[in-house]
Amino acid sequence: MDKKRIISGLSIAAVIMGSMLFVPAGSPIALLVLLAVCGLAMREIYALMAMGNMPASKKMGMISGLIFVALTWWVSLSSGRTDDALWALLLTILIVNFYRVLVDYADAPRAFRNALGTLFGFVYVAFFWSFFVRLYLSGDPAEPVKVAFYLLLAVKWGDAGAYFIGSKYGKHRLAPAISPKKSWEGLFGGILFSCVVGVIWWVLNDGMLGPYSLPFYHTLILGVVLPIIGTLGDLVESLFKRAVNVKDSGAIAHGMGGMLDMIDSLLFTAPFMYIYIQLFLD
Asked: Are 62 and 174 in the same domain?
């Protein structure tokens, strides 16, 4: 095991979890952190796309993404606000990106690839990340975040379980062509850790997930499904990196890669968690 990676991971986790426990969800500081995470991750995905010779408008994508995340935060800050402005912005972003094809009509194939590449970076990072922002503001914005904190605990302890169990007992490769180090044993370890975290949360919070009632069987379902979806999200990013022959999307800390490497599993689990709450817990 890489001890420096473990220390780096625990240090970053302590800072993030500490801020989530003590900073009110509706604080402008929280917004700045959420925007910073999104901005760094978007910069990295567009850099990966550039390495793969996939054209995209980095500035257009990042500006659109940051505005969309900020508006999601503003809309989610009050239960009295509707999503109309948010979806109007999303529609505007989509239309403007395709209208930009007309600017470079002389090279139509490249213009269309540029539009699709720009939108891909926006959807993969900013749009998916906006669901984490929604979860972040589920509940009283004057209090520290709870729903997103639970998701972060379940997913990241699942990642930790996959790493520890996989490093020691991993023999059967999960997806050797994409990520040779991932194993089925590691995935089962991640599910075990995530379920344990969920049970501890359920006991300490009297079966509540922020403003939502969380029956025990839902805790176990989430404990199983979240690590699986998180692993799939990690594999998707690994495929991107393998396509352009790079190991990490960036270099935030030793052994941790870039911001995109840190949140790749959250980008997929956050939309799932949001939908799950709307369908079964709301």
From this structure: no
